[in-house]
Amino acid sequence: MIKITDLEKFYRTEEVETIALNKLSMEINTGEFVAIMGPSGCGKSTLLNILGMLDDPDGGSYMFNGAEIAHFTERKRANLRKHNLGFVFQSFNLIDELTVFENVELPLIYTKVPAKERLSRVEAVLEKMQIMHRRNHYPQQLSGGQQQRVAIARAVVNNPKLILADEPTGNLDSSNGNDVMELLTDLNEQGTTIIMVTHSEHDARYSHRIIRLLDGQTVLENILI
Amino acid sequence: MFRNYLKIAWRNLMRHKGYSAINIAGLTVGIAACLLIYIVVQYETSFNKQNKNYRNIYHIVTQSVQGNDVSYTPGITVPAVPALRTDLPEATIAAMDVSYGSQITIPAGSGHADKKFIEHSGVVFIEPQYFDLFDSEWIAGNKAVLAEPNMVVIDKSTAIKYFGDWQHAEGKFLKMDNLIDLKIAGVIEDVVSNSDFPFKVLVSYVTLKNYPNNYNYSDEWGSNSSNHQVMLLMPPGESIESVNARLKVFSKKHYTFDIRGTFNFLQPLSDLHFDTRFGNTTGDHITSKATLFTLSFIGVLIIIMASINFINLTTAQSVGRSKEVGIRKVLGSSRKQLVFQLLGETTMIVVTSGFLALIVAKLALPYLENISSVPKTMGLLSAGSVLFLISTLISVVVLSGIYPALILSGFKPVLAIKNKITAASIGGVPLRRGLVVAQFAISQLLIIGTLVALNQMNFVNSADLGFNSSAVLVIPGYTDSLSLQKMGQFKQQQLQKPQVKSVSFISDAPSSDNNWASNFYFDQAPDDVDFTVFLKAGDADYFKTFGLQFVAGGGYAPSDTINQMVVNETLIKKLGIKNPKAALGKTLRIGGRGVWAPIVGVVKDFKTNSLREEVKPIIIAPGKRVLSLAAIKIQTGSLTQTVAEIQKLWEKTYPEYAYNGYFVDERIAQFYKQENQLALIYKLFAGVAIFISCLGLYGLVSFMAVQRTKEVGIRKVLGASVGSIVYLFSKEFLILLSISFLIAMPIGWYMMNGWLQSFVYRIDLGAGVFLAAILLSVFIAGLTFGYKAITTALVNPIKSLRSE
User: Which listed residue, A150, B279, B293, B684, has the most CB atoms within 10 A of its CB?
Assistant: First the structure.
């Protein structure tokens, strides 16, 4: 599904140049659950942003489903993103002014799904995430675990082929964290490819494969199954 | 999707109630002010347009050149009317003679008191052809009745006023000025308010010929009264230039007798309402285009200021919204969709403000007549005002919405969702500063305008006129032989009252907007002098009543005819006499047919007209026949009671006349109605501008305070004093304020200096006004942000650091 080759990313200030990704190469197949680990500043989030088409690489190639993304325009990437990718963030990133229902509905609005169908799909996914009873609440009225369920519901409502999760349990207690990991595992078993950045060895064990980064390079790969 | 936009727009408004209130308040006041300005400008520019012949109607006016004096009068001589009909056969010509104050008496029948009405305007002697030019709706009768003498047509409201209803008015009689019996031969619908021809009592023109002395009607080519005016309808396609060329030939042919350089020319009806060269118009007022331009300019400035507030607050706030924008982008929103969403929010705020502005304007509308001539009954909603409101709302949305929308939608999603967007990183700080400077500059410009206008009007209103105008009551009377006979008796009876200091019968107060001008002869010379002299008549007590001071000689002895004269300093200076005493004993003759009379006194110059004009050369002389006003100097103190007593005596002495007294100083204040209104407009809109810019400033400072909470906390932990924190907040604004002053000062000087040029007597535009303007704006800005800056500086640093 994903093939990156010699991917590079630099951050420059006036005086210092930091290398975030240093000729990084990897391949991720459809249906995989991959965890990316490494110390702070090793390039995990940068990699996830580039894989999520939120950021441009400075060099190298990024093939998604056989298409070279590096040359895509902003609009084309936005289009590809909204139909194929779902995001889960450590800080949930729900829109405070919208209710649970409306937050989950948003990706369907952007992909122009008719209102009637939106209702049934959002309700189905809220049921699945066991958060239906909170559909009319605002994010601030929910616990962290509930907020992350909403975020996951929002990430999957469009049936994306790939979910990118950036430390999805980082802001949760262990019980809620385990629930979230179970949810992601279920989704993976139903066929969704998942790439997850995490600091937690415990969480990483839910994946099929762990890629460890240091200074923008792969240092180790553990195959877990 | 649209619903989603609306929803989030509404919730955003609710979440940031403070900023929303500031935005909405600023826009509401701005839009309401603009709407009111539009109504005034629209009203003034709509004058006379309701006539279907609007484009082809002209006013024939007169220009006179004597030496260096060029003067204009809306009047034209009486014999010119038939001559014009001969020389311009294709034109339809209508003559009229306007009365600026007539008494209408409705006979009540035996045993009842007659009803008396004073009509200050709207009474006119008029030819039936007038109705071929101007549209009018006849309810009873037709224009042909005005071809007969002693016929009158009145409008519906006047009919109701005189008789209780209009249906039975036709065929009844009324008396004009206790002189002319008139039969009501027709009733017309009321003339609309935006007409310069608001006639309500229209007397047949032929009637005038029977009363030449009472209405200054003269069939000589050399006599021209500004009351006698002529309107003309040209067939379509006739160019104004060719008619003017023919009028030049016409003038040369006819104006030969002792008048040099008199020409008639056409004033298009479309110019009539704005031509300030002509004082006496038939309508209520005229408006200079400059005033309308100033008003429109102020309106545009105010809308710009409100939009600037919006841009500043929205871009400043955009930092807080970066996360939402980031998430939307991650979830697949395109930039275009975001721009539309944000513009939708702007539209919501602007439309809300538009509705509120309508309410504010509706409430303010009845007060509009204080600053303009718009009638109280003027409606707020018309096709024009709705269109104007909609286009204003659209411009405001575009002006204030586009920039913040582009900024916000341009955020990089990666940075945005991680809250890495800061005020500095979004850029636009120079722009925001620029906008604040623009806002301050506009406020200061209006403050300068206000201060200059108020100072000048204060100067004008309290200027030394050179005579004593306070507590002089003037009662207009009439010059029929019976009234003239009663003069002496009335005067003696009034003088018996201890509160009455002096009584004089006069033709005109020392300072007035009446001009009675003539050519004159000096020192037995055969040729007349090459400048015009202005005349005032009064009995021997004129000088005492108005406190005029003599520089040589004294007043004349009581006389019914002109046998002695008093002149002012300007007249003898213009004649080249340096020592006033040298003028005593020299003789003067007014006009070609006057008598020679010696100068017995020279009075110190007094202001003969408004302070817009130079002091004119004046002759004051006796002449009982024209003394139509009684001037009564009263001891200040029990004014109201004394006036009531005087009125009682007046009504007893002249039972056939309605009492219509006024104080001279009140009438003088009327000279400056337009200027006082302009000063009021400046004051009002400067207030609006200051209010809007204060709102914006307060919003910005509040925002800065939130942004810099952590910085303030750290600084305080490190030992910063409250003063230094306040300074931190104020420094930038003081710099911006100074820059804006450098912009506003020269523009303000240029504009207000131009305005002051319209006054011959004016204040000096010194540094004081500008100093006051900057101090005032610093003071107001200081009040606005001082409170917020101090409260921010006083917050316990532990609190501010923890909240981060």
Answer: A150
